[in-house]
Design goal:
The complex is a heterodimer of chains A (about 375) and B (about 80). Chain A is built from twelve helices and 13 strands. Chain A has about 375 residues and is α/β, with parallel strands linked by helices. In chain A, the strands form three sheets. Chain A has a seven-stranded mixed β-sheet, sandwiched between helices. Chain A has a four-stranded antiparallel β-sheet with strand order 9-10-13-12, with helices on one face. Chain A is globular. Chain B is globular and about 30 Å long. In chain B, β4 and β5 (about 75-80) form a beta hairpin. A five-stranded antiparallel β-sheet of chain B has the order 2-3-1-4-5, with helices on one face. At the A-B interface, α2 of A face α1 and β2 of B.
């Protein structure tokens, strides 16, 4: 069996780096318990590691209050905590058509349960947002603007700082699921007020761990209440973060792994990784230029992308192509709507979606060459092999 | 003569670790210990240090959401 070529890193980066796996195994073996609950040395060690991971994340985001960083089950949980925690009945929210269902579905539920109104701003044909279009969608009752940093469909990077300036002083919630680990997320520069990110994509950590940061000026109601290991004598949830937002035993293996992944994700490495994945996407784009039946969606300028490309074929559906690539060439991609139906409507690829190719710093030039050759072969001999 | 300890109580384990780090940076010895029941019924941990070091610790920590107790007679009186 030849080795597989994994090009679905936007879903979950794979394989997980040995250092991350080792850190998780060591943490489970040597610490293994949660902070704050017990008074023994293992609980103290867990507390120290959790604290240092929060501080690392605060440095990453260039924010001064590590306590405003809370660990969640992933970016979806982080976004839900932000949306359900911050929005009040009858608020107006502006988001974009590029959002993932992790944003669209909570907002839809909030329109039903809290009578929110939502305006979804369309991107330009290349998949990028116009700052003024977002600003023009805001009304006097707009209480939040929700933006994806990079589209999980086309990889298009959005002009977040320009949008945040255009909508100020309305707070901005940034969905950094696809950008964290590749793009700098400097909160003061971007001008955002909440950031949600996941550990298992470009950061290179394990699945099941995500992060929400919220500015101290914002008041959020916790999505769940329960044991925090603090103020246990009270009936009510503590108000002080992070305890207020972190009920229940935390995912310590996830935090061990995330800490290890973050220690590898230094700014120089992140910049090098971004250059590498962009080069692989550009390699793919050039390799497909002689295949006129394949359409390339999103920005043609690779500097406007993270390591994601979306393709369609005039001859084959995305699912046919994905199955062919997997079966015949051991190349793993992702067809369909990618949990972002409005993004596909905006691109014009709804309802069949696209074939998404997402690369990582571990993706080699030879692997992209193999994908290019396989797509050429499909369009020469057909997907039946 | 038995050492007299001071106990620093914080609202969250997050603050306990932050304070421990700050005291270590100032070369003030402290231990993270279970919260004495006489101080709080809350689970969790507090910082324990020599009462003699309390002034230096207070200077290092500055104003914040912490309270100090001491255990001269194991009665954990507030300071």
């Amino acid at each position: 069996m030849p080795p597989i070529i994994y090009l679905d890193h936007a879903a979950t980066a794979w394989p997980t780096a040995p250092a991350v796996i080792d850190a998780m195994a060591q943490g489970m073996r040597d610490i293994g318990v949660a902070p704050g609950r017990s008074g023994h040395r293992l609980a103290a060690q867990a507390a120290r590691l959790t604290y240092h991971t929060r501080c690392t994340l605060a440095q990453w985001l260039n924010v001064t209050e590590p306590r405003r960083i809370v660990f969640c089950a992933g970016a979806t949980a982080a976004l839900n905590s932000a949306l359900w925690g911050y929005l009040r009945p009858k608020d107006h929210v502006v988001c974009t058509q590029l959002e993932h269902n992790a944003v669209l579905r909570p907002l839809h539920a909030l329109t039903q349960r809290r009578a929110l109104t939502v305006t979804r701003v369309a991107p330009n044909p290349d998949g990028r947002l116009e700052p003024n279009a977002v600003a023009n969608a805001c009304t006097p009752t707009t209480r939040l603007v929700v933006l994806t940093h990079a589209s999980n469909v086309s990889g298009a990077i959005q002009p977040i700082a320009a949008i945040a300036r255009a909508v100020a002083p309305i707070p901005v919630l940034l969905d950094a699921a696809q950008s964290a680990g590749l793009l700098e997320i400097d909160v003061p520069t971007l001008g955002v007020h909440m950031v949600a990110l996941s550990g298992h994509k470009a950061i290179g950590g394990p699945a099941g761990i995500g992060v929400l940061w919220a500015a101290p000026s914002l008041q959020l109601q916790p999505l769940i209440q329960g044991g925090t290991g603090s103020a246990s004598e009270h009936d009510h949830q503590p108000e002080l973060w992070p305890d207020a937002m972190e009920s229940g035993t935390p995912n310590m293996p996830g935090i061990f792994g995330l800490a290890a992944a973050l220690s590898e994700a230094t700014p120089p490495r992140r910049a090098a990784h971004l250059d590498w994945v962009r080069a692989r996407i550009e390699q793919l784009r050039r390799g497909l230029q002689t295949l006129p039946t394949v359409h390339w969606w999103g920005p043609t300028d690779t500097t406007h992308r993270v390591g994601i490309a979306s393709l369609t074929s005039a001859r084959f559906s995305p699912s046919e192509l994905a199955f062919y690539l997997d079966r015949e060439h051991h190349i793993l991609t992702r067809p369909g709507l990618h949990c972002a139906p409005l993004a596909h409507r905006a691109l014009g690829t709804f309802p069949h979606g696209t074939l998404r190719v997402s690369v990582a710093p571990t993706t080699t030039e030879a692997e992209i060459d193999a994908l290019i050759a396989a797509l050429h072969q499909a369009h020469t001999t057909g997907c039946d092999g | 003569m038995r050492r007299v300890n001071a106990y620093l109580v914080f609202p969250s384990i997050h603050d306990v670790v932050a304070a421990e780090l700050r005291l270590q940076q100032q070369a003030i010895d402290c231990d993270m210990v279970p919260t004495p029941r006489a101080i709080s019924s809350s689970c969790g941990m507090v910082l324990c240090l020599r009462l003699d070091d309390l002034s230096a610790a207070a200077a290092a920590l500055g104003a914040g959401p912490w309270r100090a107790f001491y255990d001269a007679n194991l009665d954990f009186r507030p300071l």
